[in-house]
Design brief:
By secondary structure, this protein is α+β, with helices and mostly antiparallel strands. It has two helices and three strands, in the order H-E-E-E-H.
Length: about 80
C-alpha cells in the first residue's frame, strides 16, 4: 500500500528533511558519521554531493530510526524490507 503524507502538517524530523531535500531538488540524502558524536548530512543536488548540516549523534540516530520506520525497513536487518 502506498501512503501519501502531507509534509506541511507533519511533525516528523525525517519528513521535514525529505521536504527540504525536495525543495532543494536533491535526489539523495546521505547521513554519515563524521566524528564520534557528530553526523554529517549531505544531499546530492544536480549530481554533486553538497554538505547540508551536522547533527549531534543522538539526534541523527533518532532521524535514522524514523527514516527506517517510514521506509518499513527492519532495524535488525536494514538490507531487507519488511
Amino acid at each position: 500500500d502506498v501512503a501519501y503524507v502531507d509534509f506541511k502538517t507533519s511533525n516528523s524530523p525525517a519528513l521535514d528533511l525529505v521536504a527540504r531535500a525536495i525543495s532543494l531538488r536533491a535526489t539523495d540524502i546521505h547521513i554519515d558519521p563524521d566524528e564520534p558524536d557528530l553526523y554529517r548530512i549531505r544531499m546530492r543536488i544536480d549530481g554533486i554531493i553538497a554538505p547540508y548540516c551536522s547533527l549531534d549523534r543522538s539526534v541523527a540516530e533518532h532521524l535514522i530510526h524514523q527514516c527506517l520506520t517510514l521506509a518499513k525497513v527492519g532495524h535488525a536487518d536494514p538490507f531487507r524490507p519488511r
